[in-house]
Every structure is written in C-alpha cells, then in structure tokens.
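Email to the structure team, subject: DUF4371 domain-containing protein model.

Hi all, the expression group asked for a predicted structure before they design truncation constructs. Nothing fancy, just the tokens so they can compare against earlier work. One-line instruction: predict DUF4371 domain-containing protein, return tokens.
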Amino acid sequence: MSKVVTEHIVEEIGDSFYTVKMDGTRDPTGCENISIVLRFVDENYVIKERLLTIATAVAGVAKTLTQTLIDEIRKAALSTDKILSQVYDGASLMSGRHGGVQRLLQDELGREIPYVHCFNHQLHLVVVHAMSGERAIEDLFNICNVLYKFTRKPTVAAHYQGNTLKRLLEQRWTGHLATVQIILKSFQDIVELLRHVENSASFPADLRMEAAGLLSRILKPSFKFHTQIICKILSLLEPANRMMQSEEMDLQTAVQLVNTAKECVEALRTEKVFTEMWSECAQERADDTIHPGPTKRRRTLNTTLEDYVVEETVGVGTQENHQMTEKRRLFYSCIDAVTGEIARRFGERNSAFMEAIASLNPESSFFLEPEKVEPLLKLTGTTLVDAEFIVAKKLILKHVDSITPPEDGKWTLKNILGHLHTTLEAMPSVLTAFKLY
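Reply from the structure team: attached below.
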C-alpha cells in the first residue's frame, strides 16, 4: 500500500520542481523519526503538499539527516536536481549556516537551494522570547500550568463546572492562547472550585492548602490583567498563524500577514486601551479579596499647599499608584517586545528572491520586470526571454483590469494561473517563474 501511494505521489510531481519540508522527533529508543513533505505545482497548476515518507535516522546529527533526506528522495525515484528550496525550523541543526542540514544539502548537491525558516515556527519563537522577558508573564503561565494539573486531579475534576483547561506546550504557543481564553471565560467557575476545595473538610489538607494558594494568586487584579494582555496580543497573531498553515499560502502573502498582525498589535499601544483594561480589573478587587488588609488612614493635603495645584507627589505615594505604574510599564513592554521580535525575525526579507517574488504580483510597481525575476529563474537554469515578459505583462494587466476577480475578490497567483495558464504556455519562461513562485 505504501509503495502504491508513493508511486502516485511521484507521478503527481512528474517533472516539476519541488520544495522539501522536513521535521523530526526522537522516539524512546533514541532514533530520529523524520517526516519528509514535498510541495509542488501539479500539471493542472494546483499547489499540492504530499507526505512522501516517514524515515528513521540512526543519529540526530545534521550529516545523517541530510543523507537520509537525499536517500529517501532518490529511493522514491525522484531527482534531487528538482529540489527548488528547503523549509525547516530554526534549530541550528537544521538552519546552521556552516554545518546545518540546509548548508550540507547545498554542498552535497553542488548548487544553491534557498532555505526558508518556517514562518509558523518563527511566530512561535516571537511569542516565547517576547513573553519570557517579563517575570510576571512567566509567573502567569506557571500558575496556569498548576491550575491545569489541579483541575485534572480526579477528586477535583468531578466538582469543576467550567471549560476544560488546556495543557501548555513549549512547541505550540496556541496552547497558551487557548489557556488564557478559557481562564477568562470560566474565571468564576475556577474561583468557585478553589473556594469549595479550600473550605471542604472532605479534601486532604495538602489539596486544601494548594487551593488556597491558587485562589489568593488568581484573585489579585494583576492576574486577570496579565491574562487579558496575553489574550489580546495572542488573539491578534492567531489568524496569521492559522492562515500560514494553508497549502495555498505563498511567501509574499505570508510576509504581508505577519506585517498586518504586527500593525494590529502596535494599535493596542495606547493609554486608552491600558486604562480600560486596568479599570476593569481594579473594579473587581473589593469583591474578590480574601484577606483585606487594615484600613489605611485617609491621606490629606499639606495645609501649606492649599493655595497650589498639586500635579504629582514626591516620595512614597500610594500602593495603588505604584501598582498602576508597574502595570503600565508591563503593558507597553509586552507590546514592544512582540513587535520588536517580529521586526527582527521577519525583517530580513529584502533579498533578491523576495524582490523576484514581489515582482510577480500584478499590484507591484515593478511587475514582471525581467531583471527582478531573473534570480528566481537562475535557480532552475531557466533562460529568461525578455520578449515573453513584455507581452505577458501587458496581457495580465489588461486581464486584471477588465475582468472581475473570482472568489475572494482579489487577483492572486492562484487565480492568474487558473485563468491564464493556457495562454502563458506560449511564454514558458514567464509560466515557469509563476510556478516557482
């Protein structure tokens, strides 16, 4: 059965160029299990991704993984000369510029094969690195993890009426988003559960103490405030993360998605958003405080300042003001950290290949300019014919201007190929450029 499926995949790929996507996980025996996925455009100009095989490497080192990849491709009777690009995560084992799989594959095959760091993985690293810079956010996720384990205990789970909490996964930040969303949605159910366990003699003493400790932490206004910050930021990144997993996603659209998500996160950076969030959390303090502190003496204005307007105080100040100042700092810091990480990780996209890809967009000011597209065609040794690009540019722009775009109301690479591939077959260098893109 496996052989039949593999033969069908090879037949689908035919003589097309393809991108290699590879990831691995180590099993209990120490062997590295590697999934090899090939992405290509079939004879009907449809983008497809196929799992070619799941191979086993005896050692999880770059040289062994590279050789395993090459062996499996050749074993399936595919030509390694048709590898167009390679996509892995950002681990140095895979992405290393000198000894990583991406470098060794190029050295072994003796030609340039561009490496693309998986965008979803990069987005995950953005979240992990940005959030790990704040101790308060780390503490929040530690509490979330303890809450998850607490509600999973059989004696406790029977009394919990809220939505099931999600387990936090280091490899997937979407679990963090799901967790904070559930905590905000089922906050009252969680509070009631912890109060029930704390005050019920039927539970063991250690369980009651754990419930009391968790309750005291989540009833602090800061807990809900931190949860709301994370929920707002991650919710804006989640659509891009989900859309970038689509088979039909292309590199330029992915860059646009990330930039749009970044702009949405930056839009949160206003005093109005902060004040609304902090006010909402602070209002719940009176009802949710378990052990209220002693009533403080009301502060009075110094009589010598009666004829002056006091704009700010100097010295100790109130605890609430200090709290608000710290939360304001945290709020802006989280937003700046996320947008800064996005700019740093996705900002290095000004290469010749990105310009080549951008030049195949009808909305580009340098649409189908031969010198821009040339680096893409050089990867496959395709001869660029200037005349074909001149005619194709006029033809496509005329088509785009005169005909209403299908489906989502926008001309995309998929739509252009779907409508014009028959005509573009008379201009092979242009058609090749679109297929490679």
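Residues 408 and 415 are 10 Å apart (CA to CA). Residues 319-346 form the longest helix (28 residues). Ping us if the truncation boundaries need rechecking.
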